[in-house]
Design goal:
CATH class: Alpha Beta
Helix content: 40-55%
CATH topology: Hypothetical protein yfbM fold
Number of domains: 1
Shape: globular
Largest sheet: 5 strands, antiparallel
């Protein structure tokens, strides 16, 4: 399956539950893992493996974040809960969500397309290392997921919600 990024918008009550007891993170992201009959909840955001490519296009780096609000969209927030194999989940509070949403809304797909450099992404070892396909990889893979990311943050910001992200 590989490393995929999922996200969930949190109501005020869910945010408080996470702040009160980080053990609640797993249940919010994955459902009741102790109940074999329980279905895993559908994530509200599923960037598949595009997350690292989008992070690179937003930040110009493989793993670090700059000072721009959009830089926090993928790897931002505070670590919360247990390590899920690829690190703990990350929590972005409502004020940060609003800043990220505003910054993402100001970025167009064309702006990211101009930043797309398959050779640089391959050299930086940007997961999942599929960038040799060039513009097709951007248009058919990264651009639709970027649009989904913008919509996710926009909806969360409009509702005053926090965001919980995890790489699984």
């Amino acid at each position: 399956m590989g490393m995929v990024l999922i996200g969930r918008r949190l109501s005020n009550d869910e945010l408080q539950a996470v702040l009160d007891g980080p053990a609640r993170v797993a249940a919010l992201l994955y459902g009741d893992l102790d109940d074999d009959d329980a279905e895993m909840p559908e994530p509200e955001l599923d960037l598949d493996k595009s997350w690292h490519g989008i992070h690179y296009l937003l930040t110009g780096t493989a793993w670090t974040m700059g000072q721009a609000a959009a830089d926090a969209a993928i790897l931002g927030g505070d670590e919360v809960g247990e390590d899920n194999g690829y690190g703990p989940a990350r929590l972005l509070r409502p004020a940060t969500v609003r800043m990220v949403a505003t910054a993402l809304d100001a970025l167009s797909v064309e702006t990211l397309r101009a930043r797309f450099d398959p050779d640089a992404m391959a050299a930086a070892d940007i997961y999942p290392n599929i960038w040799a396909g060039g513009a097709d990889e951007f248009d058919n893979y990264l651009a639709p997921y970027f649009t989904q990311l913008r919509q996710f943050y926009g909806a969360a910001a409009a509702s005053g919600q926090a965001v919980l992200l995890a790489i699984t």
